[in-house]
From TrEMBL:
GO molecular function: DNA binding; DNA-binding transcription factor activity
PANTHER family listed in its UniProt record: AGA OPERON TRANSCRIPTIONAL REPRESSOR-RELATED (PTHR30363:SF44), HTH-TYPE TRANSCRIPTIONAL REGULATOR SRLR-RELATED (PTHR30363)
Pfam families: DeoRC, HTH_DeoR
Ranges where the HTH deoR-type domain occurs: 6-61
Keyword line: DNA-binding, Transcription, Transcription regulation
Lineage: Bacteria, Bacillati, Bacillota, Clostridia, Lachnospirales
Source organism of this protein record: Faecalicatena contorta
Superkingdom as given in the UniProt entry: Bacteria
Protein name: Transcriptional regulator, DeoR family
Length: 254
């Protein structure tokens, strides 16, 4: 029971940290009704996990864990993302039913799918849905709340609708790898939606450029043995590639 309470407190502390950017030990001790020493131990734990950076009297959010808008990320590593998207095309079956997640690399794939036809495409990304409406594919989106930073639709309505869908393959983005044990997200609600995508799809592919290999994020989507493919570029660190490659097939862009 004690371990559960500790995990819940640290999870809530991490959410507060990501939202506010910084926290104070004394304020957190009052909020959670625990000692300042307990909060300091929590901060040390989050620091080791790459979520927090200790500061005098408190902690700051590690820069890697702060979610940046997709409108900004879209213009980063654009050439790598385009090549990763082109490689991912090989995974799409003719007349298949697929899901496109949020994220700038997934959006790069969506651009290529405007030239395809005969697919049934589900997406929880507003900008992807708008982009694909003029294509010769069937496009479906979900109900729910819209996240400002990613244009992603999440929540119980989206989850309920997803539960009735069977997918050939889901293409998911990631904000980083949690100590190489699995792809992660900075958003709890998006991580939860992605988990359900993995459950509803025959195959799952993570699309990401090599910059995400050195980033720890907070909410794990799945273990690598639940992911069929990782599509990335050859600049990814070999030691991490070797770990992931034990469970997941890695496809490299040209």
């Amino acid at each position: 029971m004690k371990k559960t309470l500790t995990a819940e407190r640290r999870n809530k502390l991490a959410q507060i940290l990501l939202t506010s950017g910084s926290v104070r030990v004394g304020e957190l001790a009052e909020l959670f009704h625990v000692s300042t020493e307990t909060i300091r131990k929590d901060i040390i734990y989050l620091d080791k996990e790459g979520i927090a950076k200790k500061s005098h009297g408190g902690a700051m959010a590690a820069m890697d864990t702060i979610e940046r808008p997709v409108s900004v990320k879209e213009f980063e590593n654009t050439e790598k993302k385009a090549k990763i998207a082109a490689k991912a095309l090989d995974l799409i079956p003719a007349n298949g039913t697929i899901l496109l997640d949020t994220g700038s690399t997934i959006y790069a794939l969506a651009k290529l799918l405007t030239l395809k036809r005969g697919l049934t495409i589900f997406t929880n990304s507003l900008n992807t849905a708008i982009l694909l409406t003029e294509s010769d594919n069937k496009i479906y989106t979900f109900g729910g709340s819209v996240r400002k930073s990613s244009y992603g639709i999440v929540g119980h309505w989206a989850d309920d609708e997803l539960s009735s869908i069977s997918l050939n393959i889901a293409f998911l983005g990631t904000d980083g790898f949690q100590n190489s044990t699995g792809p992660c997200s900075t958003s709890f609600s998006e991580a939860d939606f992605k988990k359900r995508c993995v459950e509803r799809s025959r195959q799952t592919a993570i699309l990401t450029d090599s910059s995400k290999f050195s980033i720890n994020s907070i909410y794990k989507i799945a273990d690598w043995d639940d992911i069929d493919y990782l599509v990335t570029d050859t600049d990814a660190p070999k030691n991490i590639r070797d770990i992931i490659g034990n469970n997941t097939e890695i496809l490299y862009s040209e």
